[in-house]
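User: As part of a screening pipeline, I want to sanity-check one entry by hand. Below is the sequence and the SMILES for zinc ion. Please return the complex as structure tokens so I can compare it with the automated output.
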Amino acid sequence: MKVSAGSKLDMLFRDVEVEARAVDVAVHDGIIHSIEPAGSGTTASEVIGGNGGALIPGLYDHHIHLAALAAANQSLLFDRSFAVNVRKVAEAESASEWIRCVGYHESILGELDRGKLDALVPTRPIRVQHRSGAMWVVNSAGLALLGLSSESGQLFGADSQIRALVPTVPIDLISTARRLADFGVTCVTDLTPSSALEDLEFLAAAATRPDFALCLAVTGSTEVAQASVAGVERGPVKVVVDDYSLPAFDELCESFRLAREARRTVAVHCVTRVGLLLALAVWQELGSQPGDRVEHGAIIPIEAIPQLRELGITVVTQPSFVFERGDQYTSDVDPSEQGDLWRCGSLRAAGIPVGGSTDAPFGDPDPWKAVASATDRTTATGRVLGPDERIDTAAALDMFLTSAGDPGGKVRRVAVGARAELCLLHTPLAEALRDPHSDAVRATMCRSQLFLRDR
Ligand SMILES: [Zn+2]
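Assistant: Here is the complex for your manual check:
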């Protein structure tokens, strides 16, 4: 991009490390305008001294749920102190208001049902979301308000039903995006299988505001495959192979066809062996397209690897689950399948493109934790899950530096002419990678704005 004589460049990163060189990087109109040796004398309207800290491409979280993350930030978290915390909330706030809690899992305090919730919160409506996102547990007061009856209070796939009946709390996507920017993230793909166009338009409305800190791609399910959403990139069509009730082969074929008709790729949620094999059978039948992806790939049997490679399928993984859920897998997952959990190194070695993501709020939104987890494969209690699946930190970070349409593909670079989606670190990259941590992030630049990290 040419800058007319006399007018100033927008922004200069002075004395930063780019690919092991000390340089000055100038940005104009959202594009990297020049990269000169440090001390070049380039000036700009705004200058930030890098002190030798690395300037890398902004991180890309390839699988996230923005609205749910915002809601989780505004909800009670289900943990070992749930009983104490929920009583406090129930007493403290208005008695008629719903209590929303997220992150429930059987491994934390055993199975939760309506009776147990009633004992803790007898009169106020409460709903507790399973951390898979697939189930809500509701107490009797809540069920009465919803006009639903359920002996256990466990409602599967009832998201839209609940949303239609529960008064909505305003969802703050602006602060949510800002929090992600503090992790060095500049771009995300929202993988929520929304079937309502309003959901995508809601995200787009926030994403086109000038104070929104990210570039966003949205997906949605087959129902909204054809719809265009102004102001945001359109990712693949999200197809869910339900963990609880598998779709029929024909039904899944139809979902793929609807995506193809809309000239879009598919992103298929697969967390079980049988779910993955079913999706592969559909790909085998209908053919794959470059950009088709498996989301999660929590269990990938070794015999499926050649097929994934031949079909050219990308796997978008969440390395943090090794740390967050690894201990629970040892009791929940059949020992014969434990070697197939959250593969990463073996997929890459087989030539399968692997993209990085957090699945927040179902996983921790900090991608640096995912980088650390992909590197050490250590669980919360310090066990190692699948040591052969480890990759080095640079490779782990690279999984978060690819682009929207190619999560496991070419790593973006800080190069002249590239979009200025940037992450500035306090230290050189090699130092930051020795102990990956989001504290290394000093600022991000996205959509022509600089977002300094609050520390
Ligand atoms: Zn997800």
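Points to compare against the pipeline: The pocket of zinc ion is lined by residues 63, 65, 191, 359, 362 (CB under 6 Å). The mean pLDDT is 93.
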